[in-house]
Amino acid sequence: MIWLLDTNIVIHALNGVPTVRDRLNAAADSDRTVTSTIVVAELVYGAECSTRREENRQGIQQKLSQIEVVPVPPPSLTASGWSRHSSDREED
Fold first, then answer.
1. CB neighbours of 10 closer than 8 A, spacing ≥ 6?
2. pLDDT for the residue 30
3. Model confidence over 7-19: pLDDT tens digits?
4. How far apart are CA 77 and CA 35, in angstroms?
5. What's the rounded Cα separation, in Å, for the pair 55 and 88?
6. What's the pLDDT at 45?
7. Mean pLDDT value across the chain
8. Which domains, from first to last, does the chain contain?
9. Could you tell me which residues come within 8 angstroms of residue 69 by beta carbon, excluding any fewer than 6 positions away?
10. Phi/psi of residue 43, each to 5°?
11. Per-residue pLDDT averaged across 44-55, rounded?
12. Residue 72's pLDDT is what?
């Protein structure tokens, strides 16, 4: 099984949320755990905006050394942008 981690799950893992940590540790033994380049960018942005920049940078580097980072191809980004734009317009 492949586990694709979003930004919120990686943040929970960085913060040591026990349920997330335990599930990821179990998955690491038998499954493939990945995240995207978009998540990495969001994590770095969050670290740079924080008051504990260096600590957060180190935590991100350590966690990402355990997770495969996969690229998001441009067609996926374009489709995501269109989808989000459409849903935002429906809310107006």
1. 35, 39, 43, 63, 67
2. 81
3. 999 999 999 999 9
4. 15
5. 36
6. 94
7. 85
8. 2-91 (3.40.50.1010)
9. 34, 35, 36, 37, 39, 40
10. -65, -45
11. 95
12. 83
Given the structure tokens 């374009």, which residue do they identify? Answer: 78
Q: Scan for tokens 């980004």, then name that residue.
A: 77
Q: Cβ atoms within 10 A of the Cβ of 39, count?
A: 23
Question: Considering Cα of 31, then 32, then 33, then 39, what sign does the dihedral take?
Answer: negative
Q: Which two tokens stand for residue 63?
A: 């966690």
**Coil, helix or strand for 35?**
strand
pLDDT in tens, 54-92: 999 999 999 999 899 999 877 666 655 555 555 556 655
Tokens 């499954």, residue located: 31
The amino acid at 3: W
Tokens of 72: 């998001």
